User: Which sequence fits this backbone?
């Protein structure tokens, strides 16, 4: 049974930082690329960042380039999303995902 469990969300002021983590189990973690997605109220879920199985390749949404960093630790079956210079428009539920599996999400709220 594949499980993805996100953590690290919270409430911050604009300009602040948060680090999200996603702990994976039930799969050979190092074989899969991982992604972070987000969904704001009333909006569709959107891709935030992707990382390849070995961590060598990353991809970001234009809206977060230069502020967010995705990383992974294959030894600990975890993927992280470091979010800096947060903006109110970053407010959303953040999800990690791989191969059709999704975590339960973690809420990020950024106040102005």
Assistant:
């Amino acid at each position: 049974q594949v499980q993805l469990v996100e953590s690290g969300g919270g409430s911050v002021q604009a300009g602040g930082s948060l680090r999200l983590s996603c702990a994976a189990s039930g799969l050979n973690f190092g074989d899969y690329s991982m992604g972070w997605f987000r969904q704001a109220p009333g909006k569709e879920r959107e891709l935030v960042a992707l990382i390849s199985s070995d961590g060598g390749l990353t991809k970001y949404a234009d809206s977060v380039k230069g502020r967010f960093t995705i990383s992974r630790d294959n030894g600990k079956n975890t993927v992280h999303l470091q979010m800096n210079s947060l903006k109110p428009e970053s407010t959303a539920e953040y999800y990690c995902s791989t191969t059709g599996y999704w975590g339960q999400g973690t809420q990020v709220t950024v106040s102005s």
